[in-house]
What does this fold into?
Amino acid sequence: MSADVETIIVGAGVIGLAIGRALSAKGQDVLVLERHQMIGSQTSARNSEVIHAGLYYETGSLRAALCVRGKELLYDFCRENNVGHRQSGKLLVAVSDDELPKLHAINDQANRNGVADLRYLTRHEAIRMEPNLTCAAAYLSPSTGVIDSHGLMQALEGHLTSNGAQIVLATSVEAIGRNGAGHFSLATNSDGDGSSITCSKLVLSGGLHASELGDMLRWRTGYNVPRTYPTKGHYFTHMGPAPFSQPIYPMPVGAWLGVHLTLDVAGQTKFGPDIAWPKTDTQDQHGPFEPDYGFDDEDARRAGFAAQIRRYFPSLDPMNLQPGYTGVRPKIYREGEPVPDFAIHDAADHGQPNLVALYGMESPGLTACLAIAEHVAQRL
Ligand SMILES: Cc1cc2nc3c(=O)[nH]c(=O)nc-3n(C[C@H](O)[C@H](O)[C@H](O)COP(=O)(O)OP(=O)(O)OC[C@H]3O[C@@H](n4cnc5c(N)ncnc54)[C@H](O)[C@@H]3O)c2cc1C
It folds into this structure.
C-alpha cells in the first residue's frame, strides 16, 4: 500500500517553506500543512529581517555553519528572484573602552566562523560614517544586510508550487501515528472537519509549536522532546528621518544581541527586540497555545529602551519611539541556562527513519533558512 503523499511538512513558516522547496526540487511529491489562513504569519513575520553575517555563534555549531552558508544562498536567491533586500553592512559598536575586549573577541569569533571581512574602525572613523553615533570603536560587518521576509516567503511559495508541491492552509495537524505499512498517519483538522492523511516522509517545522508536535510522536517512547519556552521581544519604531544609514549593534548580553537599531528594506528605523524571559516553568509550552503578541508596559519600556539606545545614540528623543510590534522566540532554554544549538532531530535522536523534527529555530533561522533546507534534504 502506498502513502497518500510522499512527504508532508508541517508548518509554512520560512523554514518549512524552504524545506518544501528543497525537497520538491529533488523530485519529491510534497504537501505543506499550515494551521493558519496564510503562510508565515508567526515568527517568520515578526523578526528583525536582518541577514546575519554569522559573527557570534560557536564555531562548529549548526547555527554558525548554517548562518554563514545560508547568508550566501540567501543573497543569491534574492538577486535571482527579485526579493527585496539590501546588503547594508552593520556597525558593531563598543560604547566605552571597557567593552573593547568584547568587541575584539567577536571579531576573533567571526574569523573562526570563516567571516573574515570585518573592518576595524576607530572612534573617529565610525563617527565619520555615522555622525549620530557615539562609541569607543567599532567593526563594520560588510556582509550583513536586511531582507523583505514576506517577499522571500512569497518567492519560496512560488518555487514550491512550480515544482508541483501543494500548500494547504487552515489545516492543523493534531495527532501523528504510524500505520501497518510503516507510513506516518496524520490526523488533521480544517475548521472543525477532521480528516487523516498518510505520508512516507515527515518534517515537523512548527516553530513555537515544535514541542507540541514532538509530543505527538507517542509511539516512540523514551524520545526526549526539547521543551519550548516562548520568549517575547518588543520593537519600537523611530519617527522622523532615519538617524543612521545601517544597523547599529551594541555589545551582546549573553545570547541576546542588545537593543539594536535596524532599518527595514523600505528604510524604516526600528529598535529592539528586548527580551522578556518567561518568569516561571508554567510558561514551558506543554500543550496547544497561542503566542501573546501584545505590546506590554509601553511607558516603562520606552524609558528602558531610551536608556539603552542613548549609550550609542545620545541625541535620541524618546518621544520619537512609537510602539511597533512584538515577536516571540521559540527558545529551548531558560534564562541563565547554556545556549543550545539548533535542534534538528533525525533518526539518530528519535529512532524513526524518514522523520526530521526541528526545535529552537530562533535567530538566525531566517538568514539560514536555505541552508537549513539543504541540511534537512540531505536527511530525507
Ligand atoms: C524577535 C525575533 C527577531 C528575529 N530576528 C531575526 C533576524 O533578524 N534574522 C534572522 O535570521 N532570524 C531572526 N529571527 C529568527 C527567525 O525569525 C526564525 O528563525 C524563523 O522565522 C523561524 O521560522 P519557522 O518556519 O521555524 O517558524 P514559524 O514562522 O513560526 O512557522 C511555523 C509554522 O508552523 C505552523 N504550525 C505549528 N504547528 C502546526 C500544526 N500542528 N499544524 C499545522 N501548522 C502548524 C505555525 O502556524 C507556523 O506558521 C528572529 C526571531 C524573533 C522571534
Residues 35 and 172 are 4 Å apart (CA to CA). The chain has nine helices and 19 strands.
